[in-house]
Amino acid sequence: MKRDAIDLGTVKVFTLFKKYFIPTLFGMLSMSAVTAIDGIFVGHGIGSDGIAAINICIPLLMLFTGVGLMVGAGSSVVASIQLSRGKSKAARINVTQAILFVTVVALIPSVLMMAYPSATARLLGASEHLAPLVREYLLWFVPSLMFQMWCSVCLFIIRLDGAPRLAMMCNVAAALISVLLGWLFIFPLGWGLMGAAFAATIGLFAGGLIGLVYLFRFARKLRFYPVKWSVKSMRLSFRNLGYQCRIGSSALLTEATLATLMFVGNQVFMKYLGDNGVGAFGIVCYYIPFVFMVGNAIAQSAQPIISYNFGLGYRSRVVATERIALLTSVVSGGIIMAAFTLFPHILVGLFISPDNPAARIAIAGYPYFSAAFIFFILNLTVIGYYQSVERVKPATFLALLRGFIFLIPSFILLPQAIGTKGIWLALCLSEMLTTLVIVVIYSRATRKVCLQQRTE
After folding, report:
1. How far is CA 431 from each of CA 79, 262, 284, 310, 426, rounded to the nearest angstrom?
2. Which of 63, 66, 75, 68 is nearest to 241 (CA)?
3. What is the rounded CA–CA span in Å between residue 301 and residue 321?
4. Which listed residue, 143, 242, 321, 358, has the most CB atoms within 10 A of its CB?
């Protein structure tokens, strides 16, 4: 396993960011591609009931992924600052605690869900017709939740350890295995939803295993460290984990934002546009992870650079890194928005025929919906910055704004004000209002610094 030695304190920040961003983006987009390709396979190989059954299970994946991102982001920030201060042992202990924590958190509910799949299906909202399909998918899908959490935490730590290419390979390996096995299990073998779930589980297991093996044997600075099991050590471990979770809590809220977007969006589209509207929104939901992963890649690429230099007190390098990240956010959001505006026929046609009524609704709505993407990615980047400098309150506050406080009212009120276009513009309004709040926070902070400099 080849490692890339990266000096976060001296190398030019643009060079560092580029070295992190390209493999991180590629790896994350590969995972989003898996989601889309799996949807295409299920749609063509199983049918609409298969897609519906998987959609019922998706909130579980979002929840577990959110917990993994929360712990991964928090442990990475803490370990990065500890490394910058020469406390490598403390950094290794925090990493070890993070992996053990997510394993336990995933294992207990997973065992319960596999023991009671029918009850779990009902709790997730499966109808009598879909319940057998949801149960079939859950039995083979639930084990992947723990592997997903391993991947989420390991990717943060591996990048911090100076091996962003390996972190990319964890994602790429999981993606390729899931796609290849998904095609094999669904089409030639005819295993249906069991095959789709089994393929995803094997892929995520491979990605998580690569990460764990690296941290066990090959890590430069953050190799696992033996933990003590005394009462005092356990008490300190829980305190450390609580602090990590507070730092990364906005990452969990970001995943909750996607879940809220899907749930509320389905209800509003059904009310105004019926089943075809929900179908059109369903196609959008396959592309939203791509947009999210771009923003997440920018935030995660900047995080180790910002956290390390923040720990050293190198404010100029922190500011320079964040400026590069913000510029990358605007450019990336603009490119994606242009693609949705100029080529909606192609994007929709990958899933269903453009002549389908749902397709026509989606094609007409994509240009309005994509207006949110610049603000969407920009906000994710800013939230990631606050996480990186241990400013938990503003990160959590902004995540709540965009995920709940602004999003739900926008979905409810905007269609009433301007009609069906308002459904597609609801996300844009929510993200734009969040960006305005960010501008206000930044302006106040700038004025405060200026006043302090004058008094001095």
Report:
1. 31, 15, 17, 28, 9
2. 75
3. 10
4. 321
What predicted TM-score, i.e. pTM, was given to this entire model? Answer: 0.72
What is the C-alpha to C-alpha distance for residues 6 and 402, in angstroms, rounded to an integer? 34
CB 208 within 8 A of CB 245: no
Amino acid at site 436: L
- Give which of 214, 104, 108, 106 is closest to 158, Cα–Cα: 214
Describe the crossing of helices 131-141 and 88-115 by its angle, rounded to 10 degrees: 150
Amino acid identity, position 261? L
CA 379 to chain centre: 14
The first and second tokens of residue 399, run together, are 């995540």
Q: What are phi and psi of 168, to 5 degrees?
A: -60, -40
Residue 33 pLDDT exceeds 80: no
Q: Is 425 exposed, middle or buried (0-12, 13-18, 19+ CB in 10 A)?
A: buried
Other C-beta atoms within 10 Å of 221: how many? 14
- Give the CA radius of gyration of the chain: 22
**Reduced to 3 DSSP states, what percent helix, strand and coil does the chain have, rounded to the nearest 5?**
85, 0, 15
Look up residue 148 and give its amino acid.
Q
Nearest to 59 by CA among 48, 49, 50, 67: 67
If pLDDT is split at 50, 70 and 90, which confidence band does 436 have? very high
Helix (H, G, I), strand (E, B) or coil at 352: coil
Under 8 Å between Cβ of 299 and 383: yes
Q: Whole-angstrom Cα distance, residue 71 to residue 84?
A: 20
More confident residue, 165 or 208: 208
- For residues 371 and 425, the answer to whether their CB atoms sit within 8 Å is yes
- pLDDT score for 243: 85
